[in-house]
């Protein structure tokens, strides 16, 4: 069984389309879900899954079977998603007037919580994509920092730094809107 | 920003953006689209380090013609190389 999997990886590395198809069917859901976690848009996630597997096929000669397919695919998927976030960068300057001080989120007041949640989500979408992607994976999706670091091709320390910077910018943005987190 | 602030922001963020559906599936079969993409934009074959374009050939032929027609131009060409 293991030899069979190893054969498929080696055949893929040599550009075999049947091996590529086999790997696609084996990993498409994992790749799709990983991308969905980042872009949070099912339609975009499907398009990016196609883009990701196209990139995977294009890079078949650089694939190292010893490193495993899933981590490699996840890294390519992460970069495809990051490119999409950059291309669809919805960051805008805050032009809304502060609407007065809003209370910190509280489970006991769903109305305030809903408004703060919406503003937090908007403020989060204004963060630079490379900070947003790290915070999405590490904080929102609670992925192990080691996995996030591998997917982004950076160190665990760099992930921590990006998350810290994302949270700091988010807090500043919320404070400008009169929300004290 | 203290650790306490970070924890509060993380909780706020988790409530503002619920995690994605971990059982989500693509709504369509993506394989035909990948095949189409591969067909539209085929993977470029590995090329050798030296590519000979038609323009390079025309330039070399012109240079050769110049040298044959005007041998005295050789020192001038060498000077400008």
SSE inventory with pairings:
The complex is a heterodimer of chains A (181) and B (81).
Chain A: H1 2-13, H2 17-39, H3 42-58, H4 69-87, H5 110-125, H6 129-140, H7 145-152, H8 156-176
Chain B: H1 3-16, H2 31-40, H3 54-69, H4 73-80
pLDDT averaged residue by residue of chain B: 82
Over the alpha carbons, how many angstroms does the gyration radius of chain B reach?
A: 32 Å
Overall tally of domains of chain A:
2
Largest sheet data of chain B: none
* SSE topology string of chain A: HHHHHHHH
Beta-strand percent range of chain B: under 5%
Please supply descriptive tags for the structure shown above.
heterodimer; A: 181 residues; mainly alpha; Rna Polymerase Sigma Factor, Chain: A; Arc Repressor Mutant, subunit A; B: 81 residues
Write a structural description.
- The complex is a heterodimer of chains A (181) and B (81).
- Helix content of chain A is 71%, strand content 0%.
- Chain A contains 8 helices and no strands.
- Chain A is mainly α and 181 residues long.
- Chain A has 2 domains: 2-87, Rna Polymerase Sigma Factor, Chain: A (Orthogonal Bundle), CATH 1.10.1740; 110-176, Winged helix-like DNA-binding domain superfamily/Winged helix DNA-binding domain (Arc Repressor Mutant, subunit A), CATH 1.10.10.
- With 81 residues, chain B is mostly helical.
- Chain B is built from 4 helices and no strands.
- The radius of gyration of chain B is 32 Å and the shape is elongated.
- Chain A binds chain B through residues 15, 21, 24-25, 28-29, 32-33, 36-37, 40, 42, 45-46, 49-51, 53-54, 57-58, 60-61, 104-105, 113, 116-118, 120-121, 124, 135-136, 139-142, 164, 167-168, 170-171, 181, and chain B through 1, 5-6, 8-17, 19-22, 24-28, 30-31, 33-34, 37-38, 41, 43, 46.
